[in-house]
Structures are given as C-alpha cells and as structure tokens.
Design brief:
By secondary structure, the protein is α/β, with parallel strands linked by helices. It is built from 17 helices and 13 strands. The chain starts with 7 loop residues before the first strand and ends with a strand.
C-alpha cells in the first residue's frame, strides 16, 4: 500500500520569536509543493499560547500544522528533539524560527528525491551577505548546480578544518540539520545508536556527525535554501565575543578540549564532534584523522574575531595556551610555525581601541555609525541586483548535476 505520509516534515524549534516564526510558517504555506506537515515546538516563555492561537486562524487541515507547548523549560537540544520526534514525513527539515524557505525550495527537494533517492540533501552554509544581494529577498532562481557526494568525502573534508582560510569556521558545508533535508529513517537509526539525535551544546554538529556515519548518499545544493528573517538575530551570535556565559553554568566542561580550558566557542564544537564520533568504531577511526593544526588555526581565527569586536576576554592568554596545546599534541616545530604565521597575517589592527570602546559601552554605537557611512549609496545597486535575480528566476527549473 502506498504511503499516505507527507513527503516533508517541516520542524520548527521556536522560542520567544512570535512574529518571526509566523514568517517561517508563511514561507511553507507559499510553497508550490503541498506534501508537507509542520511541527512547531514552542519553547517560549513570553506570549504563551499566542502561536497556537495564530495557527488556528490559518484554515489548514487540523493535522497539517501542530504546535507543541513545551512550557518554556527545554534546553536548545531538547527543543530540537521535541520538534522532530513527532515528525511523520519521509524527509525532515529543521527550520530555525529566524529563517524562511526560499520560494520553490520544497519542489526542488522533491525533484532531487525523485531522481536520486538520497539519504541527505544539504546546501551551502555560506552566510547570505557573502552572496551580495542574491538572497535579500525570499525568492530567486532554483539551484542550477548540485553535486552527488559521499558521506566519507564530506566528513573527511570537514575534519580537515579549513574554514579558517576564508574566515568561515562555522560555514563549512556539512549536513548540520539546519541546512539539511534528511530521511526520517536515518534519524531513527541515529537515535538507536546515540539515544538522541540532537545533543548539547551544538545539536547541529552532533546531528551532522550522526548523519555522516549512518548515511551514504548525499546531494549537495550549491546555494542556500533558507533566507534570514530581518530582525531575528541568532541565539549564538554574540557568544564568541562576550563569552560562553550561561553555557558554562549549565555545561561546565563543554569548552574543555584535549586539556585546553579556555572560553573558545570552537572548542565546544570540537568536543561535540569528538563525543559523537567516539561512540562507534568507525567514528573513533575518524577522530584519528582530525587535522589538529588546522583546528587550532580555526581557534586562532575565532580569537581574531574576538579582537576585531573588542572582546574583553583574555585573548593573548588564550593564544599562548593554544600554542601549548599544539606542543602537547605533538605538532612539529614547522606546524607550530605555520600557526604563528597564520596569526601574524590575519590579526586585526587597532584592537586596543576596540577593547576600550567595548569596555566603556561605546563599541556597538561606533560600529553602527561606521556601517552606515560605509554602506551609504549602495541601496540602489542592491535593488538593481534583486531585480536581476527576479528576472532570472522566470522559467528556471532545470537541475544540473555536477559530478
């Protein structure tokens, strides 16, 4: 008997972003593929019940959109589990409540599924502003380029940790659930091994490692399929600059990686990656292939970012401790010299001025003024690029496979 389940489960873990999550839902309602369900795990502590009340006004079938009221007490990883466990669709997408689906995204995924039957479909993790104005609007042409990639290739490239080269340490394209459509049966297999698919404090990375160990066939789309909702900032956006804060209260050792006990966000990612991999024999073999030299360069890239934003954290001390870790890990003098060369090439100037502005509460004001001056006069050019995108979108429905 043919399955009556929806092809896609759109799972939205939400917290205190009522207006933004409405836009997320509306972006699903606007899709030209109708085989979907929406599951929202509402972990809000503000306006309790308002989201469920709004959903009731949408005139959708009762089982099409479900809202789960968590009571507002879940950690982030628990909220992601809450949103995805009830999913019944063949493929699951986790959509943050600060993003929307691009127009036509579900139909693009559906076409790929019909053609390739992949375990995973994932897309570029590049930040929207790095594409210029291409993603300034929800619409735009469907992807014209995709690649069929093995999970081993993706995992090997990821563990080489070359994100520091482009200052996109967290932008490496791997299936991190937030940029992925995954087979629901894949998550069932993962939960049998790890207990939960999403674990603290980086549930996107714990799920990615699980997917890459249990999955096989992947299709990579070379464009982002979600666009950001204006005004809905990231929960984690300031953590690198201001410090891990409450994460250290809840998870005291989340940042301690191979003896390095410093306030570095990338250390938490490395911890979550290794803790996921070490559960299976295959994963433990992958741990041996981690490029420690490049991982430490990624940490140094984060320290540069801290300095650029006037962080009051002890960056100089942390650098010295990273060099000490490099020696403990057995890196050669040449490898340590490579790290030192990277730091000297990539560090920002005037960092003491930035720290001074941050210390006296002036940094955000000065940066906002500077940004307005830098971007003055660019609006008309951006508008022209958006119009060009809209024109190009008409009639483009071909998927080109790049092997």
């Amino acid at each position: 008997m043919a399955s009556t389940a929806a092809r896609f489960s759109i799972c939205i873990p939400s917290r205190n972003r009522l207006e933004a999550v409405k836009e997320t839902v509306q972006s699903v309602l606007s899709q030209d593929c109708d085989s979907w369900e929406i599951v929202i795990s509402d972990n809000s502590t503000q306006s309790r019940g308002a989201l469920a009340a709004w959903v009731e006004t949408l005139e959708q079938p009762e089982d099409k959109i479900r809202v789960i009221d968590t009571g507002g007490n879940l950690q982030m990883d628990e909220n992601w589990e809450s949103a995805t466990l009830p999913a019944t669709g063949d493929y699951v997408l986790v959509v943050a409540d600060r993003w929307r689906l691009r127009n036509g995204a579900l139909q693009v995924f559906s076409n790929i599924i019909d053609r390739f039957d992949p375990d995973l479909i994932f897309w570029a993790g590049t930040k929207p502003h790095q594409f210029g104005a291409l993603f300034a609007t929800p619409g735009g042409p469907p992807p014209l380029k995709i690649s069929e990639v093995s999970t081993n290739k993706i995992l090997g490239d990821f563990l080489d940790f070359r994100g520091y080269e482009t200052e996109s340490v967290y932008g490496q394209a791997i299936p991190r659930s937030l940029n992925t459509a995954y087979k629901r049966v894949l998550s069932d297999q993962a939960r049998e091994i790890w207990g939960e698919l999403f674990r603290p404090i980086s549930p996107d990375y714990t799920s990615a490692m699980a997917f890459l160990l249990v999955g096989q066939r992947c299709i990579k789309i070379h464009e982002m399929m979600y666009t950001p909702i204006k005004g809905a900032g990231s929960n984690f956006s300031n953590t690198s600059v201001l410090g891990l804060g409450h994460y250290l209260t809840t998870f005291p050792n989340c940042h301690v990686w191979r003896g390095l006990d410093e306030d570095v966000v990338f250390s938490t990612v490395l911890n979550d990656v290794e803790n996921t991999l070490k559960v299976t024999a295959e994963g433990r073999e992958w741990i041996e292939r981690i490029n420690v030299e490049n991982a430490l360069k990624c940490m140094m890239s984060e320290l540069n970012f801290k300095e650029f934003n006037g962080s009051l954290l002890p960056v100089a001390r942390t650098r010295e401790k990273i060099y000490a870790l490099a020696a403990r890990e057995g890196l050669s003098e040449r490898q340590i010299s490579n790290i030192e060369d990277y730091v000297s090439r990539s560090r920002h100037r005037a960092v003491e001025l930035r720290r001074w502005l941050r210390r006296f509460g002036l940094y955000d004001t000065v940066r906002s003024l500077n940004d307005r001056l830098r971007h003055a006069g660019k609006k008309s050019r951006i508008s022209e690029m958006i119009e060009a995108e809209n024109v190009a979108a008409r009639g483009l429905d071909v998927i080109a496979l790049d092997r």
